[in-house]
Amino acid sequence: MKDPKSIINKLKRMSKNIKDKDIVEYLPIIVDDLNYLADFRVLEMHNLTKEQQIENIYEIQKYKIDYLATLIKKYMELEFHKELSYEIEDGYLFNAPGGYNQKKDVVTLSIFGLINDSINLADDIRTIAHEFRHQLQYRFLHEKTIEGVLDYPDYFIKIARSIIPKEIYVEKDEDGYVIGKPYYHDNYKRLYSEVDANNYGVELNDFLLSNLYNMYPNKNSKLEAKIRALQIKLSIGSSIVRDKLNEEHKIDREYRREIYLNTPITSKVLVDEEKKDSLLVVDKCIKNNPSIKEKYEVFGLLMKDHKFKDYYQIMMDKYKAIDRYGQGNRLDSIYNNIINGDPMLTIAGYLIRKDTKNIKKFIKEHPTFTTEYEEEINELLNTMIVDIETINLLNKPENIIIKKKLKHYED
Questions:
Q1: Which residues make beta-bridge pairs with 162?
Q2: Against a cut of 0.85, is the pTM above it?
Q3: SS3 state of residue 248
C-alpha cells in the first residue's frame, strides 16, 4: 500500500523544482515528470484506499496543478514573449475549473474545479492553457501599436472584435454593478475567444513536447524515444478531450475556420433569443461604442479621432507598417483579418477591385446588410464612381425599383 504522504512530497518537489528552471534545459526531467503524471491514476491513486484518496486528494491535486501551471506558463512565455501569471484558488470558482480575472490580470485555477471536471492529464493541460490563452487575448486588447500587434497570432484582431459584445451587452443594477451577461451566456460556445482558447489548449498536448525538443541543445536518441512514447500517451488523451469538446460544440469547425482562415464570416449569434448575423452584430456593437478604444486600446489602431478608418486609411497604415517593420506577409495577413471582420471595409475592397461576383456573394450571405448599413453604403457610394448594376446590388429593394424606372426613362 502506498503512503499518500510520499506521493504528496514527490509532487511537491516536482512543483518546487520546475519553478526556477529553464524548461528547455530541464526537458529530460520534464519528460519524466509528465510520464509520471500521465500514469498517475494507475501508478498511485489505484494503490490508495478510498479513504486515503478522499483525505489527500486536495493536496495531491494542488501540487499537480501547480506543476502543470508553471510548465504551461513558462512554455507560453517562450512562445509569445509575454509574462503570464496565475494563482490557485483554495475553494470553488463558480463551479468552474479555472478563470481569467480581467481586473487583476491573473489566471485563477480551482483545485476542486479541476478535480470535478478534468478527465485526464491532457484535459488538465487543456484547461490551464485555455485560461492563459484568455490572458493573452486580453493583453492583445491593450496593445497600442502595430509593433505590439505583431507579437501575437495574425488572427487575434478577429478574436478581439468578438470579445466586445460580451463586454457591452451586460445587465447592471441601479448602482452600475454587472448582475448578468446574457450575450456571453447565450453565445459561450460561439465566441471566438472561447473556441480559440479550447482549441489552443487541446492542441498544446500535441506540440508542447516536440517544440521544446526542437529548442533543446543536447538532442539524443534515448530522449527522443522517451518523448515519442510520452507523446502517444498525451495524444490518446488529447483525442478523448477533443471528442468531448466536439460533442459539446465547443470547437465547432465553422468557428475555427472563421478564426484561423481568411474565409467569410457567416456564422450566427443569439441576441434576445433570436439568431442574427454575427459579422453585423459584432461590427455594429463596436461601431456604436467608439469609446471602447479608451478601455481597449488596440481599437485605436482602427480609428482616427473618434471615427473608424476607411479602406484607404487602413491600406495606408498597412503600407507604412510594412515599410517600417518589414514582415510583409504577416502584415498582409493581419490587415486582411482587419478587413475581413468589418463589412464596410470588405465591401469597399470589392468595389475598388470591381469584384461584382463577391459583392453578390456577400449580400447573399448577409441579407440584412443593405438595410442595416443603408447610410454607410450611401456615404461610400458617394465617394466612388460605381456602375448602376453595383448600385442596385447595394441598395434596398425599394430603391432598386426607383433606379430601374429612372434608367428606363433615360433610355
A1: none
A2: yes
A3: coil
For the stretch 130-165, pLDDT in tens is 999 999 999 999 999 999 999 999 999 999 999 999
Please check whether residue 152 lies inside any domain of the structure.
yes
Other Cβ atoms less than 10 A from the Cβ of 238: the count is: 23
Sheet holding 106-110, edge to edge: 86-89, 106-110, 98-101
* Cβ partners under 8 Å of residue 149, min gap 6: 140, 143, 156, 157, 298, 301, 334
Report yes or no on 296 lying in a domain: no
pLDDT digits (tens, 9 = 90+) for 335-381: 999 999 999 999 999 999 999 999 999 999 999 999 999 999 999 99
Range of 380's domain?
A: 342-411
Does 176 reside within a domain?
yes
Q: Select from 260, 284, 315 the last residue of a domain.
A: 260
User: Half-sphere exposure (CA, 13 Å, Cβ side) for 153?
Assistant: 16
Q: Are residues 243 and 346 in the same domain?
A: no
Across the chain, mean pLDDT equals: 92
Q: Are 246 and 348 in a shared domain? A: no
Among 17-21, 22-26, 91-95, 310-314, whose mean pLDDT is lowest? 91-95
Q: Number of structural domains, the chain?
A: 2
Pick the last residue of a domain from 260, 291, 322: 260
